[in-house]
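Changelog note: in this version the structure field was regenerated for every chain. One regenerated record is shown below for reference.
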Amino acid sequence: MTATPPNRWDERYDHERFFYGEEPNAFLALQLPALPPGRALFLAEGEGRNAVYAARLGHRVLAVDSSAVGRRKALDLARRQGVTLDYRCADVLADDWSTDPWTGQPWDAVVLCFAHLAPEDAVVMNARVAACLAPGGHLLLNSFSKAQFGRTSGGPPRLDWLHDLDVLRGQFPGVVFDHAVEREVELGEGVGHRGRAMVIEMVGRRG
């Protein structure tokens, strides 16, 4: 019988402290309050800091991630902050998250925060994200750009897993971007994201 390989995210999160901190990402903390409360999907959500913040704003939240440790910590963070969220421990590529499980309706908002996948997998997931948005639904995306390569402030150490702004624009059919920039920011998110970093920030709406 072949042993199940360890989940590297479980290993990363299996500490008392939150690897990326308990506060929401600064870009999302700015953008989420501008959205009307609705059905919100958070993919590759890790320890749940952003999903919990959205729940505090009144969104009905489903988080999806492969880490059971991340799920446990996210639900504990939600409890400590007096909110509830659903957290599905699953593979974001294999699982079906195309509709809100409570109503069967498409999503009012989808959030991708530092969701870095192999390039061929990212193309598939991003197309699915675009398709699962309700008309007028919002996409919020924050990720590391290719200019981050070689920096120690966060992100995958592989150039092909980092993002190109123009390429990302074309991977979400039917989504019109009101805001899409690449810029340098100062990150202070736990021990995982710390220092000057090159990021991509995008806000889009499904037509």
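Spot check on this record: Strands lie at 39-43, 60-65, 86-89, 107-113, 133-144, 175-189, 193-206. Residues 39 and 102 are 9 Å apart (CA to CA).
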